[in-house]
Amino acid sequence: YVPPQVRNAQETLDDKKREELGRLKKMVNGLINRLSEPNLSSISGQIEELYMANSRKDMNETLTDILMNACVTAVAMPARLMMEHVLLVSVLHHNVGIEVGAHFLEAVVKKFDELCKSDAEGKECENLLALIAHLYNFHVVHSLLIFDILKKLVSIFTEKEIELILFLLKNVGFSLRKDDALALKELITEAQKKANTAEKKLRDQTRVRFMLETMLALRNNDMRKIPGYDPEPVEKLRKLQRTLIHSSGKETELRVSLESLLSADQVGRWWIVGSSWSGAPMINDTNSKTQQKLRIGKVSSKIMELARKQRMNTDIRRSIFCVLMTSEDFMDAFEKLLR
């Protein structure tokens, strides 16, 4: 039972909150509507001020909603407009905090997954994929996520997926090659296998041949073979990004997999520092009992004997002891411990 006066107080509080959120939404909407390359600096500054004046949660939700409404439409969005919106997210991600980019990324990826499973006729999937591609271009997210998405699309391999693979490779293919050539090579091999085993109707399509040619052009670093490939707009905006952010881009990249993002509600968001978790235990008892064997390379029996004398009685203690005793210097020890 809630007494009437408490009930009234709660209702007025809710109304007040709703009014505040409405006002905030109007302000952010006004800024996003005016967004363009020349005024990006002033608009990002104004949004940063709003972040200082309001709760992060409200700001993240409001900003994500407005950007999703602006960018995810049934018609294909102009690439330039897309880049400017993502660049704004990237600047806020670096200057305000990584939870800005993380919140936006999670919303985009979940929406993309949901639309891929449904048979949506519009261009929403391409628009969402463009957002993810540009989040990678502007160092908000690591290439790990892009490879996860590509692997998923290759594993399904229908007309719609082939279209999306081509779209993604055209946008970020050469950056992926620079970041992780080996993973790209494996992906190309997988796609070739899939194309060979696909049914004849799909295999004879010019689109499949075009996709394989695009992949080979990427592997051979041949930019001329990819029609419409123009890295200049991204490069120009990257230069602008460097002038707007106060820190270097690499250390704030979110190294998060597709699976982690899709199951964030079940297993928590480990990629955001300080995010609270109020769900079920993440590791069940059976997993914790099987201890992981650590690879520490070949260590002499003398060191192992020393470890035993020092009562290093678990694998992890022994491996840490061996690392500390056999490292050349502190950097070497640091690298080995990380591994």
What percentage of amino acids are in beta strands?
A: under 5%
**Can you give the mean pLDDT?**
84
Provide the number of structural domains.
2
The count of helical stretches stands at 18
| Count of strand segments | 0
- Computed CA radius of gyration, to the nearest angstrom: 25 Å
Helical amount: over 70%
State the CATH topology of the largest domain: Serine Threonine Protein Phosphatase 5, Tetratricopeptide repeat
CATH C-level name of the largest domain: Mainly Alpha
Our measurement of the CA-to-CA distance between the termini, rounded to an integer number of angstroms, reads 56 Å
Q: SS-based structural class?
A: mainly alpha
Give the H and E element order: HHHHHHHHHHHHHHHHHH
Q: What is the makeup of the main sheet?
A: none
Shape summary? globular
Low-confidence stretches: 283-296
- The CATH architecture of the largest domain would be Alpha Horseshoe
Subunit structure: May interact with EIF4A1, EIF4A2 and EIF4A3. Interacts with PPP1CA and PPP1CC.
GO biological process, one term: ribosomal small subunit biogenesis
GO molecular function, one term: RNA binding
Function: Plays a role in targeting PPP1CA to the nucleolus.
